[in-house]
Write a structure and sequence with these properties.
- The longest helix is centred in the first third of the chain and has 31 residues, at 82-112.
- This protein folds into 2 domains: 3-344, no CATH class; 345-417.
- The chain has 17 helices and 4 strands.
- With 442 residues, it is mainly alpha-helical.
- Strands 1-2 form a two-stranded antiparallel ribbon.
Amino acid sequence: MKQSIADRINQTGGRTSGFDYLRIFLAVSVIAIHSTSISYGRAYDATIWTGLAAVFAHSILPIFFALSGFLVAGSLERCPTLVSFYGLRTLRIVPALFVEVMLSAIIFGPMLSTMDLASYFSAPEFRLYFLNIIGDIHYLLPGVFTNNPLPATVNGQLWTVPFELECYVALGALIAVGITSKRKVLLGVIIFGQCLWAWEAYKRGNAGELAPVNGPVLVLSFLSGFLFFLYRDLIILSKSLFILATTACVGLLLLQHGAFLVAIPATYITVYLGLLNPPKIKYLLAGDYSYGLYLYGYPIQQAFASMGSWAHHWYLNLAVSLSAAFVIAYMSWNYIEKPTLALRRYLPEIERKFVAFVYGAWGTIRALVWEDVVTKLLSLAIFGTGIGSAMLLLDAHGSLGLISALMCFTLGVMKTRYRRFAVIRLSGGKENGEPFVAPRER
């Protein structure tokens, strides 16, 4: 009997170990891939990451983002409004990122810098580095890692953070205007976006850089993960389809412009593996260490490379950095991430007060202005924010789309009137008439 994604989620109660293992594997893979460029310089990557090795390297981040999109879609099932949704995302991402940035800039930066303390703390690069906390990424700290094979880059892996934040903002906007409740429309947006970027890559004449996976590919992978959740009742889990998706993913990544079309097959690989449920290794899956590995792996690798030429060997870098990263990821999870996630118990009260405030303000506006005019303006604004959100998703970087998405969030909160967003509920919390269990993150 063929089993759909929804069948599998219900069967396992939404808590499969496959996603946990997959996250750890992807985070470790990122550290492994960086061990060559950090040990020998970026030019060396062009000689080693070729063919199937390049396919492996370039598939990591699309799978990471597809996994995030699929699990976030499940998280929306449990969020009454966008207030709680963004609250949960903030608690999951910001505290650990804040601590990593502070430790890098205030503790380890001065220890590793070639500059004296007065010059270090007065340099503009020091102040700019704190903007990483809000997604404005800067890689330099004064005098840090300047003599490394890959010089003056403290945490190169942070380049993906702005695209992850944009995924959340754009997704919230699409929810508020109701696009996500019409899965065929979202499917059309994704197909159009993939065609648009494939055409753009063709016009460029090349992939643009060593790693052909860039921001638009990551955004489309995230949306594909979300789309797979919406179509969970129709998408069949099959070993044959998994092999087909893997073959397609490999073939596309071997093509010059194929990465721009890799989101759908990469997402099928992600969901298929994530919904497997192998026995858990107690100590490995005692916490979600993947985010800590992702945040700290790169600066640890650079710190090891700064010790001298004897440390410029990828296998030494990988062995030492991975061990240290696991220790710090363990501490990050147990003393930062897990405690801050416990604060989500306060979100319902914050949500209630915020919605009450916005609804009160909306009522005042309606009392002062002719209601019909306000309704028409509201409809026009929602239409405009829908277009802006689509622009943000397809462009993967744009102030117009971001502003429109924020407007849409406010309008969406006004429309709740203490009620749950119908579009956030997706299937209404049921699947084929039976209670549906959404996949859960830690």
